[in-house]
Amino acid sequence: DTHDPTSLRTPIVAVLGHVDHGKTSLLDKIRGSAVIEGEAGAITQHIGATAVPLDIISSIAGDLVDPDDFDLPGLLFIDTPGHHSFTTLRSRGGALADIAILVVDVNDGFQPQTLEALDILKRSQTPFIVAANKIDTVPGWDPNEDAPINDTYESQSDRVRQRLDESLYEIIGNLSDEGFSADLYWRVQNFQRNVGVVPVSAMTGEGVPDLLTVMMGLSQRYMKEEMEIDVSGPGVGTVLEVKEEKGFGKTVDIVLYDGTIKEDDTIVVGGQNDPIVTEVRALLQPRPLAEIRTESRFENVDEVGAAAGIKVAAPELGDAMAGAPVRVVRDRDLDEVIEEVQAE
Ligand code: GTP
Ligand code: MG
């Protein structure tokens, strides 16, 4: 493994928004795989994590992103469900995130879970941008596959442009009602102070190059300014899911947001009763661009660094809980780590 302890950690990007507004489709478009096909029913039931390496981002963003301008290894996207009954999963995803994308259907506008997601972002003070999705459904839209927004906007008729503008200004108005100063992203100078709105289509890929460019820029600046993270220390993470895995028994899917985790590390995991102290038997990594939730072919790795989605196989995980903390002990005092896990 070529993990460089001096590099910036992979930023965690939560994708939030109302049910059916296109969160999973947008990630699907980005990773170019068909996760949506594997979903039970139409709604996303669980949080999934998807790592997108910098070179893939820059190839999608085309001329807009030059990989030489960035130190970041890529972005780790966390999908969340929009259905109203999944408040805990949304807040878990939102709380884990360094930055976020709030997806809003451009025709449907602000809806209850849009407002709920905004509250989560407000409370956790997470910088975010708004993806005004489904621009291809504006009546009369002439699609230009995967084009930057400026190019496709210029090629639309006056009537279509006007319709899109109206919808976008309504979203900007809604954001303003919630206390956020927002504007179309190309007019925003400081993305930490003002919310940028990026028109996109998860279906045609229009605006997706812009979205990724803004996310890279925002995370690069944010990670440099706000975080001096020791990416080589003992790992810290959160359990997303507890799952039975053939040949491994109960395993936990975690998002590691700080430090590293290694095979044979002693870890402490929050349990239904007491914290669980156990030893890592195997670290199972989904292939890059794969979805941890649906991917069955894992790669065995010796070590991973933050941020990453990783499946941990270890004995005694039967009582582990989704949302619980995970901490690597390594050279630390075990009792102290147990106390930390209990306190969280
Ligand atoms: P939940 O996970 O249930 O909250 O929904 P979601 O936000 O992940 O929405 P999803 O990606 O499942 O998309 C919902 C529906 O909208 C699907 O039928 C998609 O095909 C459709 N859709 C998503 N994005 C677009 C878009 O940009 N254009 C069009 N025309 N349809 C879209
Ligand atoms: Mg979804």
From TrEMBL:
Keyword Iron set for record: no
GO CC annotation: cytoplasm
Keywords tagged on the record: GTP-binding, Initiation factor, Nucleotide-binding, Protein biosynthesis
Sections of the chain in a coiled coil: none
Domain Tr-type G: 8-223
Superkingdom field: Archaea
A single GO molecular function term of this UniProt record: GTP binding
Amino acids binding GTP: 17-24, 79-83, 133-136
General function of this protein: Function in general translation initiation by promoting the binding of the formylmethionine-tRNA to ribosomes. Seems to function along with eIF-2.
Family: Belongs to the TRAFAC class translation factor GTPase superfamily. Classic translation factor GTPase family. IF-2 subfamily.
Listed name of the protein: Probable translation initiation factor IF-2
Gene assigned in the entry: infB
Residues included from the entire protein: 5 to 348 of 599
